[in-house]
Amino acid sequence: MISKVGLIYTIYRWEEKELSRAFRDRGVEVKLIHLEEEPLGIGVKDLEGPNIYIQRSMLRTIAPIASAAIESQGFRVINRSIPTLIAQDKGVSLSLLSLKGIPIPRTYVTLGLGSVVKAAEHLGYPVVYKPTQGSWGRLVTLVRDVEMLRSLYEHREVMQDPRARVGLVQEYIDKGDRDLRILVVGSRVVGAMFRIGGFVTNYARGSEVVAAKLDPEVEDLAIRSCEILGLEIAGVDVFEKRSGGYVVNEVNPVPEFKGLAAATGIDVAGIIAEYVISEARR
After folding, report:
1. Which among 171, 172, 170, 179 has a CA at the least distance from the CA of 198?
2. Fewer CB in a 10 Å sphere around the end CB: N or C, the chain?
3. 241 Cβ contact list (under 8 Å, min separation 6)
4. Domain covering 106-171 assigned CATH 2.40.50.180 in the classification
5. Where do the domains of the chain lie?
6. pLDDT digits (tens, 9 = 90+) for 210-257
7. Helix or strand run (H / E) with residue 115
8. What's the DSSP call for residue 204?
9. Class of the CATH domain delimited by 4-87
């Protein structure tokens, strides 16, 4: 019987509290590892107790590094470091998904202003311009003409972080005012919701959420996307086109699930806890 699980985090949000509750309800002690307070040795055995950890850091720069450090000590982390690193980069993850036949929005990766403008010309306006890294829809912009696109690029060019210049220009998918967030745990879909709002539909930014019943085609897309990227727990964002068909927009390796729990009534934390416990027993 597993007695302890490690929970790696940067902010102790609703999700982390619910996960702690779910593990404790199952008789499993939770070792909290706050990454701003606890250093992690690389190849140095400085961790004791749990032999399995769940990665819940909301900071993209630290999550894969922390997972890799814990893995270097011989421990199991969900999700693993390399899949997390790959999934966090939208350009890399979309490339791998497309290579394996997953439908995605037509997308160009861009660096300089010239490439940004040419990408938009290839796709035709309106286009979506966004960074390769990010969450909650930050800096994701619907662009209707070249003047607006130039202005956006010039704004990002002066940012302190040079990664802001690396962007994706995508075709605009007419999906109405909603999209799908699907949660996959251990190669099965455990729940899905429609996020209803405007152009950006993130629950954290105030979108309405309602439970969604999925076609087998969409379930298969979500599961295959996670398997291709090597993710065990992930939130898959899918657009349903008005003209018919689906595209995978992105896959989140550290998904928030407060909205899904509210929309469906599912004990998401309990399902995740059961999966982690089952993996620890292997």
Report:
1. 179
2. C
3. 173, 174, 175, 247
4. no
5. 4-87, 106-171, 174-267
6. 999 999 999 999 999 999 999 999 999 999 998 889 999 999 999 999
7. helix 113-123
8. G
9. alpha beta
